[in-house]
Amino acid sequence: MLCVKSPDLIGMKTTNNDLKEGKHMKNKDKPLTRTRASRSSIKKNKTIYLMLLPGICFLLVTSIYPIVWILRFMFYNYTSFGEFEFIGLQNFVKLAKDEIFFESLINTVIYASGKLVLTMPIAFLLAYFLNMKIKGRNIFRSVFFMPTVISVSIMSMVFYLIFNPYNGSANQLLLNWGIIEAPINWFSREKAMLTILFVAIWGAVGNYMIYFLSGLQTIPQEIYESADLDGAIGWRRLWYITLPMMSPIIQVVVMLAITQAFKDYETILVMTAGGPNGKTNVLYLYIYKLMFPMGDAAGSVVLQYGYGSAVAFVTAIFVGLITIFYLQWSKKMQETY
Amino acid sequence: MKKEMGKVLALILVVAFLVIGCTPADVKKEETANSGQDTQQQDDQQQDKTGEEKTKIIVWTFQRHDMDYVAEVVDNYNATNTDNIEIEIEFMTDNFDNNLDLAFQSKQAPDVFRVKAQTVTPYVKKNMAMPLDEFLTDAEIERYGDMVGVDRLNAVDGKIYTLPYTGSPFRLIYNKGVFAKAGLDPEQPPKTMDEMVEMANTITEKLSKEGIYGIAANMKNPFSALFRSVDVVAHRSNAFPYNPDTEEYDFTKYGEVASQFAKMYAAGSYFPGAEGLDIDPMRAQFAQGNIGMYLSADWEIGVYDGQFPTEEEWVAVPAPSMVLGETYPTPMQSAGLGWAMSSQTKYPEEAWKVLSIFQDKDYQIDYSEKGYGIMITPEVAQAAKPAEKYGAEFFVPTQDDKVFSPPPHDAGLVIEGESYWDVFSEVIMGGKDVDEAVEEMNEKYNSALKAAKEKGEF
What are the structural domains of chain B? Predict the structure, then answer.
């Protein structure tokens, strides 16, 4: 770049910034500033922005507006449509003493942990084996992915019937095979959460298997060939090559799985409605019940939009903190060898 | 040129999306089972054939089971009335409460609406209901006896807001065939809880191998399970936790009643999977003869007539009590609550005339005899024959089926955390000690009531 001072700047001290902004140059030769660059980009891509506008409007109305609504009404007592009263932080004071909230929190942690600990290894192993050149692998991939495309409510209702302690097919099969001598009560206080976890894992494995499969397919074959030459076969290949190469992808998939596990409630709603006695009540189901009471209250339907908003906000913060903690803890996984 | 075409196309798409997104939903004006938020403006009037303007009265109800009958009555009225009134009725089965709130907020409320809650209090608090006193004559009030003017039920601060309509008496429903199979006398159902426990256990002991159990409850929803069972027996035994005389809660005797149900659960006499059982799957199993007995109300008539037709010989008798020979009145579900007039109606005289159609003696007798519900107005209850549907005769109100003022927890008292139904369902399923539950609930409910009284709410 020819560094010729502009007549305006002659006699003034010229800084590096001035040089970058081209203050020493004539206007028509001046490089674009950031603002000018943005404006030029918007003008250039006007069509694209216009095409995006309906989607943005939709997002504002269906996502941003509800979030703003929640952030507002968590400071209100809102128990009847259209009538609300500002109460400051009272909803949060109530939450701090809410036994149901804390029980739901514990249940959520148990559920999420159980789901993650089992789903991730199973999904990864399935992806690993289905990435190999075996006969019928596409059929297997389709079969394992099938639960992902089934409606959660329908799947949950079917499993509710399968696990029906009275005449469900699960007990019938186990009795016929002589594995049990008496029907198992799959929805008892001790077993309800395990039953829910089984259904949740069954429904989730296929989805994460696909993510892992996509990741496995990005590992260059040359690396495996070199490993073969060096004698790294079998589990050594998996442990020393595949897993490290996959670590950034695993980090992201696990993060997605964490947030999803904390948000799950549909299966629980259909199968146990959070029972028996709150043993399977999770945070998002509790929020759902506060926003859409299911006839638990006698008398008039008692909506609790205000308190429900406060619980939703605290839950979101909790899930966010868990996610941030996980990302910090798993930073090293972003390094690819 | 291509750029310009792209811009035009983008603009067209944006406008198209905005138009689609902003177009209001179609307004449904006919009778429909879906919720609707569209009512015509009150000052819309229709012309009849002679050119005179008719006053349109909008009516909303949440009940669907009597839709055909009520629609027919409305059509007949519209065709023949000389009051110059046209009724437009909406059968809003989904989100009735929300839609009603929204309608009042947007000043598009119906003129007459069905009271859905267990008390008229919330409608009065939200200024939705209009007092009916100025329209009621002494004779009309007298025909309802002690069922009208019940504080916090159909009256607030001495003003009447709704009139008695239907009521659902609770009963013990049992299968005679199952009783006989288990060696029990089918003509001798249990009269006390001790007998009920013994009979339930006997049925289970003898017939569980055939898949038949003594008792069932839809414990998936603790409120739904207990309000129709433990609460009913508690009322029958003078053990209900709220004492209107002392205005205090005491769950001690209620805990004793719950303990009896807990005995049956511990003995394995509850239908398997009660923890996750919904009411309809439970009814389906009873219809198949797999359950000995359970407690519920007159809804079961329609259930076993249409929803789960059964060949089983089922009967319904008064619920047992804790002590033989000592029985007390039991409140009927939804009794004392019928139709209300909107505070926003521009045509109160006409709205009252429409409301009176549903309170008419002949209408109520016909409604009752056709099996749509049990009308509790004394003169109607005496005059109406039991409906032709099987089982209707079991639910004819007796002297023990009463209309009560709802207890505070049914009349808007806010209870934080678990309700007593949640806690005592845990007692029944063996998850909590009954004494601990009694102490906890006494503390919780009395504290809540005290706080509410200090605020002037009760």
Answer: 45-167+334-386 (3.40.190.10), 170-331+413-454 (3.40.190.10)
* CB pair distance less than 8 Å for A272 and B219: no
Interface test with A, best of B221, B226, B275 (most A CBs within 10 A): B275
Cβ distance of B272 and A297 shorter than 8 Å: no
Q: How far apart are CA B323 and CA B193, in angstroms?
A: 8
Judging contacts by C-beta atoms under 8 Å, the chain A residues touching residue B429 are 189, 276-277
- What are the angstrom distances between the C-alpha of B108 and each of A124, A299, B42, B46? 57, 24, 8, 18
Q: How far is A197 from chain B (nearest CA, A)?
A: 16
Residues 404-443 of B with CB under 8 A from A: 406, 409-412, 414, 416-419, 421-422, 425-426, 429, 431
Contact partners, residue B335, CB within 8 Å, separation at least 6: B147, B164, B166, B167, B168, B376, B401, B402, B403
- The strand pair at B242-243 and B248-249 is best described as antiparallel
Q: Which residue has the higher pLDDT, B294 or A293?
A: B294
* Nearest residue of B to residue A101, measured between CA atoms: B417
Residues of A with Cβ-Cβ distance to B211 under 8 angstroms: 166-167
Residue A78: its pLDDT value, please?
A: 87
| CA nearest neighbour of B353 among B139, B114, B85 | B85
- b/e burial code for range A168-202 (CB count within 10 A of at least 16 → b): bebbeeeeeeeeeeebbbbbbbebbbebbbbbbbe
Number of Cβ pairs < 8 A linking chain A and chain B: 133
Q: Where are the beta strands (DSSP E) in B329-393?
A: 330-331, 339-342
Pairing of strands B339-342, B129-130: antiparallel
How does DSSP classify residue B375? Answer: B
CA distance B220 to chain A (A): 6
Tokens 């009030």 label which residue?
A: B141
- From chain B, pick out residues whose CB is under 8 angstroms from the CB of A57: 17-18, 21
Classify domain A92-334 by CATH number: 1.10.3720.10
H or E element in which residue B425 lies: helix B420-428
pLDDT at B28: 35
Radius of gyration (Cα) for chain A, nearest Å?
A: 28
| Res. B26 pLDDT band, cuts 50 70 90 | very low
Q: Tell me whether B127 touches chain A (CB under 8 Å).
A: no
Does the CB of B62 have a partner CB in chain A at under 8 Å? Answer: no
Give the H or E element holding residue A203: helix A192-216
Confidence of residue B160 (pLDDT cuts 50, 70, 90): very high
Report pTM: 0.82
Residue B224 in contact with partner chain A when CB distance is under 8 A: yes
Partner residue opposite A46 with nearest CB, options B7, B290, B418: B7
The rounded distance, in Å, linking the Cα atoms of A247 and A231 is: 22
**H or E segment to which residue B112 belongs:** strand B112-114
Chain A partners within 8 Å of B121 (Cβ): 300
Q: Look at residue B371 and tell me whether its pLDDT is greater than 80.
A: yes
- Which helix (H) or strand (E) element contains residue B87? strand B85-91
Distance CA A86, CA B77 (A): 47
What the block records as the tokens of B135 is 């329209």
Q: What are the extents of the domains in chain A?
A: 1-31, 92-334
The string of pLDDT tens digits covering residues A229-247 is 887 777 888 888 888 888 8
- The rounded distance, in Å, linking the Cα atoms of A280 and A300 is 26
**How sure is the predictor about A314, in pLDDT bands with cuts at 50, 70 and 90?**
very high
H or E segment and range at residue B227? helix B222-227
Pairing of strands B330-331, B248-249: unpaired
Q: Which residues of A touch B118 (CB under 8 A)?
A: 298-300
